[in-house]
Amino acid sequence: MTAGMDGRGRPLRIALSSYRSKPHSGGQGIYVRNLSRELVALGHEVEVFSGPPYPHLDPGVRLTKVPSLDLYREDDPFRQPGLREFRSDLDVLEYLMMCTAGFPEPRIFARRLERVLGPRIGEFDILHDNQTLAPGILRLALRGLPLLTTIHHPISQDRRLELAHATGWQRITKRRWYGFVGMQRRVARRLRRILTVSEGSAGDIAADFGVLRNRIEIVPVGVATDVFRPPSIPRVDGRLVAIASADVPLKGISVLIRALRDMDPGTWSELVIVGPCSDRTTASIASAGLSEKVSFRSGISDEELAALIGSAQALVVPSLYEGFSLPAVEAMACATPVVASDVGALPTLISSEDAHPAGVLVPPKDPAALGRAIAAVLADPERAARMGRAGRTRAESTYSWRAVAERTAELYYDVIEAGTGTSEPIREMRTTERESV
Fold first, then answer.
1. Concatenated DSSP letters of 369-423
2. Where in the sequence is the domain holding 191, given as residue range(s)?
3. Do residue 107 and residue 244 come from a single domain?
4. pLDDT by residue (tens digit) across 131-166?
């Protein structure tokens, strides 16, 4: 049997869209790269349509760049573009929405994608959208292009936590920033089939977005077990690693800093955080007296990230919510014990009824409990090794990208056969959804 031919029909021509695809941290760029590679390996054709930052893709996967003003780049967030950068009416609209404290990227990306992909609809069998959830995506489906959407987790969770930490004027600007969540909720309700990454995320999508649970399919995110593997050299004594795609309250870095501040300083030697660092976090680290022991890394390759995780004695995931947590699975693949908050998908990833746990779970927002758990893991190498072996076994058996691609391709065939492009929920968009832009 030819690769990609499994009785469901010919190999597929897949358009995979992502409004931003950061290559080395955050789920979107990692998801796009690994899923597209494995779909091509199965015999399908994949063309990625992405706004900046663009993903790093493997040979055989085509990339069509959908340029934007890139107003939120890490080195210059909320930047003021020069006049020569404005190339279209959508550029002007994107900038004006930013000036009103909104987050225009998903909505404007979808409208740009309409212009780029619209004339080429006949070249593809399906559009797989990665969490854009904007009306422009639905309009492509209205034109007859079958649609599957991945929602890693509803951004309403981020909104809730950010507003809980905001005060005064911040609450007004945060509400404006997260205004796109209402748009995503309306779009999600009109999708016939949604793909998400965990049972926890499925429940949250159903509750927060009002989506019928029987429309949601679960396919977990994968890990490259040939890259993320147990280290061949000794781990660095007392080293901890944390990964935060964004320096926001959701990721719980402030909880981790408080935990380390109150621990016996001889218990651990250093913390390496992979991701951006805000002025707020820098100040809190300095206030805790930890500036000499905490460092930040960003823009590193998968191989460098795997080596870093493999060099640590524990990976810490202090998040207040996680729809999946790819860093936890990457640590498991490296046989690195995980100390994580007991929230979202983390209990399912870390615990198991049929095997030893891959780490330790603690209540969220509890620095004392987090500190005790970290200290206990560092103090018991034999227990840490058992957790590491359990994690590696589970990563190999459950979370390979090939398995993710195979299951996702099956969903593509289901969506195509169901004729999603003409479903009633999407047709309703003609009359009930009125874009404000």
1. HHHHHHHHHHH-HHHHHHHHHHHHHHHHHH-BHHHHHHHHHHHHHHHHHHTGGG-
2. 13-222+400-432
3. no
4. 999 999 999 999 999 999 999 988 887 777 777 777
